[in-house]
Design goal:
It is built from five helices and 13 strands. With about 240 residues, it is of the alpha+beta class. It has a single domain (about 5-244), classed as Alpha-Beta Plaits. Strands 1, 2, 3, 4, 5, 6, 7, 8, 11 and 12 form a ten-stranded mixed sheet that branches. Strands 9-10-13 form a three-stranded antiparallel sheet. A hairpin with a 1-residue loop joins β6 (about 135) and β7. The longest helix has 14 residues, at about 230-244.
């Protein structure tokens, strides 16, 4: 395995990878598969620095896809009190995930932090400890857990299924600090599961090329990227250590 790649088992009692279409009436229903963006968020919770970008290579569905509907009381946005709604979650989920990171070339101010081996070693240690931050499966109320694994090991519920296609799904967001343009875009795609494995189309910083590769996108709104100053951050850390 390359020195920028990790493999892990992702499990949880419930998951909610919300289909945006179902949110119009105040309800929420999960996609049957985890989205690229949700898995990327899991990788960021394991370990992340603005120096790098996580890319999800593929995911393997281990447990059977089952849903569970629950009555919830979400907070009303335009008045006091709570509302009533039904959320449809995925129940008892388990996935094997393979991902890797690459340097974010739109962060030239962090070029000095592109150190081979450093970030990989930290990412491996954080994965062994269950992540640097809390792991969520789509939403805050769905707690997840990660641990190292070998991708493809063990028995999956859909190993014998030749092919299963899904309709149009949300893929990921194209953020300004990853594309170099001051705009937020949403990418879409049509996934296909083969023998329990979904291989993701790798996004790029060229939205036109993404569309050609099978990732059409939709403009959301204007957005600017936050800037980082590596020397300033190092100086603040040194000052803190001297004070201690």
């Amino acid at each position: 395995m390359a020195k920028n790649s990790i493999e892990f088992l992702l499990t949880g009692r419930n998951a909610l990878f919300t289909d945006p279409i179902t949110r119009i009436g105040g309800e929420k229903t999960s996609y049957h598969l985890p989205t690229y963006e949700a898995l990327k968020g899991v990788c960021k919770s394991i370990y992340w620095k603005p120096t790098l970008i996580w890319y999800i290579d593929k995911v393997r569905v281990i447990n059977p896809i089952r849903t569970q509907t629950k009555g919830v009381k979400p907070i009303k946005y335009h008045s006091d009190g709570n509302d009533l709604a039904y959320y449809t979650y995925l129940h008892d989920v388990a996935y094997q995930v393979q991902a890797h990171f690459e340097w974010n070339m739109h962060r030239p101010e962090l070029e000095a932090d592109r150190i081979d081996g450093k970030h990989y070693s930290i990412a491996q240690r954080m994965l062994e400890k269950g992540g640097r931050q809390d792991i969520f499966l789509g939403t805050r109320e769905c707690q997840g857990y990660v641990e190292p694994c070998e991708f493809g090991s063990g028995v999956g519920a859909y190993d014998e299924l030749d092919e299963l296609s899904y309709g149009t799904m949300f893929h990921s967001f194209a953020y300004p600090d990853e594309t170099g343009i001051d705009e937020l875009h949403a990418r879409l795609w049509q996934p296909t599961m083969k023998h329990g494995v979904i291989e993701f189309i790798k996004p790029s910083d060229d939205l036109e090329q993404d569309a050609i590769n099978g990732l059409p996108n939709q403009f959301i709104r204007k957005m600017t990227a936050k800037t980082f100053e590596l020397d300033s951050n190092i100086q603040n850390v040194n000052q803190t250590q001297e004070a201690i």
